[in-house]
Design a protein that fits this description.
By secondary structure, the chain is an alpha+beta fold. It is built from 13 helices and 17 strands.
């Protein structure tokens, strides 16, 4: 039987709170789901009570407040089933990326995981999933085989390319939690057990040279090489190494599935610059989450992103003007190299067909409500500065928070796909029960 929490219950605050505190939910009730049947019961209860439905698993990408609605918390749905012979996994709605990586590694397999082990597997895939293996294998959403979802009529459906193909197409990339509550995914796994990877930090006086080198270097590397560059002023906290504490740095992150010998040869130009840290080495894929080492403490975070078609010398200068050591930027700036298989059409077509650009620019910072407008103004200045190199699109999965506009979300899709998504939304959720999350209809 589904457990329901009200504002007077001790567990209510914990159950309504996720990682990103930029949106604070005050739902009429919270359904704590442990099984798909619990989700079915909750959706039917919402229909009976005339409530909208929102979903929370890890809370890394909240959108609008679920005030006065029914919030379904799926974080307790932790089932993982792996078929090592067929190389697939069935993953329930509360499983986090790191949990799946560890479970698959036992069999010498890997999912198309992202940079953070804490992000939910289901929402990551539904939003596209920019994997650290993506340049050679494509978007994570391209490797979804089946989706189990409870739709607005309270029915639990198993969708595949052959059963309800429109819904299967739309769920993959077409707006998380806008067509139903996904209770499980079946996804491909890949025979990858090791990699050559890690990171290097470059001091402020080497950042321009390192970023320029990286921009040029990305034009020559094989698809087995994934990389990203982070510009950030590190916090002044005791557990950081002294060369990083309170310092402005560039963090170069490397994920290479070729041989260690080839990897060493490829990154040699960066080692020649004299990084202040260097952790790039042979490692098991199960350790992939240590490469970006993203924070796990909940925080109110506001972020924007753009797809860039290129990163030439003028683009590097524009970025450094707004996010360099002397810019006093209240945000971090990350560039992820895309291209390769991330630019090619998928064998299993999805709503995520806009795949232009060679880089994702992602910028964001922590700010409470009173400081958020100033942060957003600085982010807007950055985006305006890089407009000459932008494709006009965004990485849908990197959009989060109350500042996302319908126009910004729509720019992640092809125009004809927006029309199709709106039709499917009307068919499966005509009363717009799933209206809390950013949608396209």
């Amino acid at each position: 039987m589904t457990d329901y929490l009200n504002a007077t219950d001790a567990e209510y605050d914990t159950a309504r709170t996720g990682y990103n505190l930029a949106v604070e939910h005050h739902p009429a009730a919270i359904a704590v789901a442990r099984t798909a049947d619990d989700v079915v019961h909750a959706v039917r209860e919402a229909r009976t009570r005339g409530l909208g439905v929102a979903v929370l698993a890890t809370g890394h990408g909240p959108s609008r407040p679920a005030d006065g609605q029914l919030l379904i918390n799926t974080s307790a749905m932790k089932g993982i089933t792996i078929d090592p012979a067929m190389r697939w996994a069935r993953v329930e709605a509360g499983v986090r990326g790191g949990e799946l990586v560890q479970a698959a590694a036992i069999h010498g397999l890997a999912p198309l995981s992202g940079s953070s082990p804490e992000v939910g597997v289901v929402s990551y895939h539904l939003g596209g999933g920019l994997s650290l293996l993506g340049r050679s294998l494509g978007w994570a959403v391209d490797h979804v085989r089946a989706i189990e979802v409870v739709t607005a009529d309270g029915a639990l459906r198993r969708t595949t390319p052959d059963t309800e193909p429109d819904l299967f197409w739309a769920l993959r990339g077409g707006g998380k939690c806008t067509l139903g509550v996904v209770t499980a995914l079946e996804i491909d796994l890949h025979p990858i057990a090791r990699l050559y990877g890690g990171g290097m930090h470059f001091a402020a006086d080497r950042v321009e040279e390192a970023l320029t080198l990286w921009a040029d270097w990305t034009r020559t590397v094989p698809e087995q090489m994934a990389s990203s560059a982070l510009l950030i002023r590190m916090p002044d906290i005791p557990f950081l190494p002294e060369p990083l504490r309170g310092r402005y740095v560039m963090h170069l992150r490397i994920v290479f599935t070729g041989s260690a010998e080839d990897g060493e040869r490829l990154i040699a130009p960066f080692r020649a610059l004299g990084p202040v840290t260097d952790t790039v080495t042979e490692m098991p894929y199960s350790a992939v989450g240590t490469i970006h080492a993203e924070p796990t403490t909940p925080v109110a975070f506001h972020a924007r992103n753009r797809m860039l078609r290129t990163l030439d010398a003028d683009a590097v200068q524009a970025l450094l003007q707004h996010a360099g050591a002397d810019a006093d930027a209240p945000f971090l700036l990350e560039l992820r190299h895309t291209g390769g298989a991330l630019s090619r059409p998928a064998e299993r077509a999805s709503a995520l067909r806009r795949r232009d650009g060679e880089f994702v620019l992602y910028a964001g910072g922590a700010a409470e409500a009173d400081a958020a407008p100033a942060l957003q103004a600085r982010l807007a200045e950055l985006l305006a500065a890089v407009e000459p190199w932008a494709t006009g699109g965004v990485a849908v999965n990197f959009l989060s928070g109350p500042d996302v506009t319908a126009e910004e979300l729509s720019s992640g899709y092809l125009p004809e796909d927006l029309v199709r998504l709106a039709r499917i939304k009307r068919e499966y959720d005509p009363e717009n029960m799933f209206r809390t999350h950013h949608g396209l209809a």
